Each structure stands twice: as C-alpha cells, then as structure tokens.
Amino acid sequence: MKPIVLLGATGSIGRQTRDVAARQGWEIVGLAARSASDELLVAANEFPEAVVVVADPLDNGRSHFETVLGDRVQFGDDAVEDLASRRGVVVVNGIVGAVGLQASVAALEAGNRLALANKETLVAGGPVVLEAARRGGGEIVPIDSEHSALWQCLVGERRSDVRRLILTASGGPFRSRTRSELENVTVAEALNHPTWSMGPRITIDSATLANKALEVIEAHYLFNVPYDAIDVVVHPESIVHSMVEYADGAIIAELGAPDMRLPIQYALAYPERAFVPPDPFDFTAQPLTFHEPDTDTFRCLALGYAAGRIGGSATAVLNAADEVAVAAFLEQRIGFLEIADVIDAALETVEHGPVTTIADVVAYDHEARRVAGEWIAGRG
Ligand code: MG
Q1: Does the domain at residues 147-257+285-379 carry the CATH identifier 2.60.40.1120?
Q2: What fold characterizes domain 4-142?
Q3: Start-end ranges of CATH 3.40.50.720 in the chain?
Q4: β pairing state of 240-246 and 251-255
Q5: Which residues surround ligand 1, an ion (CB under 5 A)?
Q6: What is the pTM of this model?
Q7: How much distance in Å is there from the Cα of 142 to the middle of ligand 1?
Q8: CA dihedral sign of residues 281, 283, 286, 289
C-alpha cells in the first residue's frame, strides 16, 4: 500500500477514508480541506505524521492552526496541488465541486493513482483529465459506488465484449412522486436520503437525479463507453451497485450493503482486496426491485444525457449550473423543480465548444455560473 494523500479530508468521503485507513493501518501523509475546521484538527490528530493543508489562505482559523500545528500546516491552493503531485502516493480526491479538477490533474501528471470521488473532475474536465493521465502516466480509479461496481464487473473482461453499462439509482427520497407533488418540497425533505449518508450537494443531486446524470457522464469518460450504451435503472434498495451486460447477454452485477468504505478501500488497495471482518449479507432480508427512471419528472437525468452527447464544454456547463442551482435551492431561493430549469437555461445560453485546458474548463464554469445566477436573480 502506497501512502495516502487525502484531499477533502473533512467531508463525507474524507471521514470514511480516514476510517478505512485507521482500520487497515494505512498511512495518510497529507490531509487537505477548504477551511481550518475542528474536524480537520481531529483528522490531524488521527494521523500525526500527515502534512495538513488548508486551501483558503484567508481562513479565520489560520493563526489557531499555526499555533497548534506549527510547521505541519500550509495554506493555499498551491499547497493542495503540491500535496497531490507528491511522488509515489495514492491521491484520494474527495473535494466537493469543480475546484477538485486542478488537484486531479496535478495527481495524474505526477503519475499517481487518483482515487476519484470528485465527480466534477471528469464531468467538467473529462478530456483534460484523460490527457493529464496519458501525459503523466497516472491512473484514475473510481470511488463512487456505481463506478466502483462497474469497474469490478469489468475487471478481466474485454471492453469490446461490453454491450452496455447499467447504473443503478436509488431514486432518492422523491422516487415515484409526480411533478405537482414536487413543486413545494422543502430543503429538509430533499436532504433526507433513504439509503446513503452523504454531503448536502450530492444528497440534493440524488433527489433530482442530477447525481445520476453526472455519474452517466463520469462512466462515459472512465470506461470509454458511448452514451447509447449506458443505461440507468432505479433500484431503491441500493444493494446492486451497478451492472455490466456483455455481448452474450450475461449480466455481471456487484452487490452488497450500501457502505462507501468498500469502494474506498477497493480503490486504494486494488488489485488486492483488503480484509474486513465478515458481516454476512442476508439475501432474504428484502426483495430487490428495479424501475424505469421517470425522466419527465426528474429532468436533470435527461439533461445529463443531452449534455453528454453534445460533449466538450456542455458537461462542465451542466455541472456548474447544477452547483449554483442546488446552492440556491438550499438557500430557499428557488423551488426543487427549478433546479432543472436553471441547468436547461445554462445549456441553452452558454455557447458550446471544446475543452482542452483547465483554463477552458474554468471559463465555461464561470460563464455557466453567471448565466445560472442571472436566471435565479431574474426569476419571479
Ligand atoms: Mg454514486
């Protein structure tokens, strides 16, 4: 096991990665987070050898951190990038949002394995990231449960034999609701995810199916499979994490209890499987059910396919507009169904083009945020 650099150390993925590392006795040599929070100090105490990086150089907690951690703490985005580009480490990117892209590129250019939980890396900057991996010799492995499942179903198989990828979606808390029932749902209702415990943006994205849209795009880039060969099926129990159908009609699925620690440790230890005390899975506990996704009600999924097929900048625009829309929904400035309207407006308004550099991605990201912000401000 290579030493671990953990970016986004205080978020949901970050906490679970620390948990896995502590349980397996794996070394974490770098911890990065946006702000100088108490949670980051907890992480710093858990891994006393780790360098600690706070991305925001103007953070209120800066002097306190400098007093407590001394030489161990560094500040600024450059320090995050330095951490990601250390040689001979595996980099876990659990940063939320498009800011994670730069760190992903740095890790791959340094030839590192990038264990990717930051969806925006591939959704916003797919072509840039793949090129960085090619140039630096780095390797992208997924942490997201669906993509980890697809990866596990693909190991040892020929890609030319793949007929389609089938991503499962829990459907979120509003599965089977109609549009009129969704018009006035509250933030608290949307944050109440039935099976997975995650951060606020991804939880709202799960409720709108925007999360699944991002995952379809991510799967396209990760596994080099066309959009026509990527399907989504709603599976509320979240036991089947995703499946691959092959040319002969055989379908291979990866199943288990919903626990992000499994994909995290698979990404870090691959090709080995880390030992975990067995907790036998009870196949008789509940039936496993599957449904067609309702893309008329949950428009974000259809918008994801549309953006993916346009390619280039469109998925960066989708991602940025969604991030702005979710923030506005959490602040109760727009309704739940309007999240899709914001994305739609951004995809309609921002001109499409290729993305070949991080600067391209950033430019499209900013433009999409501007358009999304205008739409929200001009509403009503
Ligand atoms: Mg997922």
Answers
A1: no
A2: Rossmann fold (3.40.50)
A3: 4-142
A4: antiparallel
A5: 144-146
A6: 0.94
A7: 10
A8: positive
